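Aim 2, interim progress. The first record below pairs a target sequence with its structure tokens.
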Amino acid sequence: MAEYILIRYCPKSESGFWNVSSVWLLLGAKAPFFMPRVKQFRKEDVLDKAISLFWKQGFHATSVQELVTHLGINRASLYNTFGDKEQLFIQALDRYREKNLARIRTILFSHGDIRKGFKSFFERTLKSALSHSEAKGCFIVNSSTELLPGNEAMQSFFQRNKSDFEALFLEYLEKGEAEGQFGSGKDLTALAALLFTLQNGIQVVGKVTEDEAALMQNVHTTLDLLD
């Protein structure tokens, strides 16, 4: 199948030099020289692959060559589309964050009862934390323990993640308060922050214990604050 190239045609000026004004002519021909490559991948698909590799190996242990091999794209495409390794990592984290927020929102708001909603969410969190997969734990929590403190770009991302999750938990708690599911006058902002801390704590503690009952008791104790 013939490839198409653009050849620049410029009429000569009186001086005999090429004029700066020009037109572009499209000629059908086999391209005799380099043509710009068209992307053959979806950015979201590549980020999902990056998540799986970074989640398994961590940021520092993953080389650019491993990324090129795992993602199935060349170095030029990687740098042109995502920037350097750190920029790719942050974009992978951000995609994970967005998908995670959407998933958790669905879990919570599928339950009219606030306590049942949080119980369902934390049961899933426990299952993930206690799993024996190679990518054990939460990608974001794992990354924060590896990279913080000392990296401003990462610090900014993790702060944004914290704010987004606390805002989601607060929104759900305020729904319960408005519906009279628990008494008014509670500090829901502080409770939302506590729930976020519990969520992340479970992911960390789940690496060193398999006592699901003890971890779930922490959830019940926290939710008792709604009574």
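The second target in this work package is listed in the same format:
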Amino acid sequence: MTRTDALCRLLKAGGVLAAGAWGLRRRALPRLTILAYHRVVERRPRDYPLDSGVLSCTRAEFEREMEFVARHFEPLTFADLAAGGWERRRPLIVTFDDGYKDNHDLALPVLRRYGVPATFFVTSGYLDERILPWWDEAAWRVRHARAGALRLGPEAGGETLPVAGPEQQRQAQQRLLRLAKALPDEARRRLLEDLRAQSDPPPRALAEGLMMTWDDVRRLVAAGMEIGSHTQSHPLLERVAEAAALDAELAGARRRIEEQSGAAVMALAYPVGRAGAVTEALAQRVRAAGYRYACLYEHGVNPRRGFDPYRLRRIQAEVGTDFDRFRAKVLFPRWVRY
């Protein structure tokens, strides 16, 4: 049992979670809470061929969480925030990253049932090209290597990763994700090419059906949801050296999403989203590209006074977050981080 597990049990056993939820409805919060999800699934698969780290929750878990949000908070979008949403007593924004198909098929009906708006940060290139996101493709390549090891090129340190069994595959996948998140965009592309040369390709139907279509996005808008940008190709923006390439990822993606969705895009979620990677120069480029808000993927909440609109923190409602931990994260974000 981790220290966080023990703390959550203590908070529940002592009645602190119930008392905190009860008290929440009777006072205003001096903060904006933003929840971060990736995917909602019907049930957790035992043997998943892609990146299981983005399987945030099951539909049943998501429904329980949204019932809690609807009861105890005043959900809004970034457009609402810009129009004075800070005046709400307990503001909260639900967000989804990447643009997976299950966001439309499974999450949307739950959101509508509880009257909770959400912001969907879509990666425009994945919707246009119908390809696997790089992290999902890397996971597939590990599981479908033609030999018992994968040899990486010099841009990834020239390592050899054994992939002969499930445990080796799990370790190799984790290592590849860490490497890919530390590499410049072009080096990450070369890493994927190395993996492709040593593995069998995924079936085309898998890529075709994994991400939302633009029709799905338009249905989200029609249902009162908000669409944000997660760039064009999900690079680490701080590693994009060329000005034209950065413009394509920021302003270009925003234009494409607005063109296809028919709705204004005012918010961005930084891919990977580490706080230390968002320099002042990058924040200025985001602002110049027309965004009013930008979200990190770092734990925390945002104070009503003195918040940074281009470094908004989020609470990660992801894998391993059961309902007690979800409540603890939302009610006591300074105590419970993971």
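Residues 134-201 form one domain. This observation will shape the mutagenesis plan for the next reporting period.
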